[in-house]
Amino acid sequence: xxxxNLYGLTGEREHLELIERYxxxxxxxxxxxxxxxxxxxxxxxxxxEVHGAARAWEVTGDAxxxxxxxxxxxxxxxxxxxxxxxxxxxGEVWSPPNALSARLGFRTQEHCTVYNxxxxxxYLLRWSDDPRxxxxxxxxxxxxxxxxxxxxxxMIAYFLPLYAGAEKVxxxxxxxxxxxxxxxxxxxTMYADNIWFAHAGGVTLSQYIPSELAWAQDGVxxxxxxxxxxxxxxxxxxxxxxxTVRVQAAQPVEFSLRLRVPWWVSAAAQVTVNxxxxxxxxxxxxxxxxxxxxxxxxxxxxxxxxxxxxxxxxPHTFGFMDGPVVLAGLNAAAPSDRxxxxxxxxxxxxxxxxxxxxxxxxxxxPGTFLIPDDxxxxxxxxxxxxxxxxxxxxxxxPLHEVRDEVYTVYFSVS
Length: 414
What we know:
The protein is an alpha+beta fold. It is built from nine helices and 19 strands. The longest helix is centred in the N-terminal third of the chain and has 18 residues.
């Protein structure tokens, strides 16, 4: 990717030769031919190589580079599946296609792979304008990037264990410096490049992250401000996420404003422009408003619901999501008093509960056995739930809020 960037700047033949020298045909050729060359391969070796192919396609126009990228995504994501978090791997290597249960351990989801797959999704989103890549990016942001950084100390978790009775192992401020420390810093520089995108004739809001965009349409300065609407007047925690976009133009100007409708919406999104209803759109698509803008307000409400998501090869083993956010059940066990060894150490064997936690209920209707818990605190809504009607009830909180608690992501549900 570095050599492709250099060639894009200089256009010199010697820099094109550098790209070609890093063309690993023994990997790329069978990948494009449809062979499964990823299983058991070190994941974070291959993703940067495919970043290079992506950038090489942009600067050379050689269709083979694009074929490599498309084949990698198809093999690594579309045909292979991923955990409820969006992550893959155990012990840093690719799992077999749709065979994740046997590798559900305490070294799942290396942080670097989450970050680099999000970068690859960004390439594909910009090329294709397909909002499914933005959906993937969002899922990994909430349940990878944010879930693997300690909310208080800022320390990184090299892996994100997803088995029953897991604990996150946090890096030390002075004793560790893993590759994931670097990707953590890189990950939090991505927001400005992934919230807003230009499209033909307008601008697209891709990620619902509070932000302000200053740009120009046909030479007219335009400012767009996106804010989260907490819906604080609701009597109970809203079953939707809501956002407001304020559009201010220096003078009336016509353009298209598109908002992504995420995959997780449970009903039609409700969109208004200056209080007037606008037609909705399907999940994993865009709702588009083409009009003359001056000083206008757009409001979008995205209905959400609890859903149970099975492991691809274990139909009775489920995790739970509330909109884009994965939930973690808090175990009764106290955190272990073991020293915080490096997360990749061979001696790191935390509290490993093979038996897991069994829940009784209808996975198609998780709201019948998971109910809101401690829903309001001061001026914000909490994302907590608790089980109901179980032999021993537990509390569930967003996975990205787990600090040092013992937790479980996947449950046996009958």
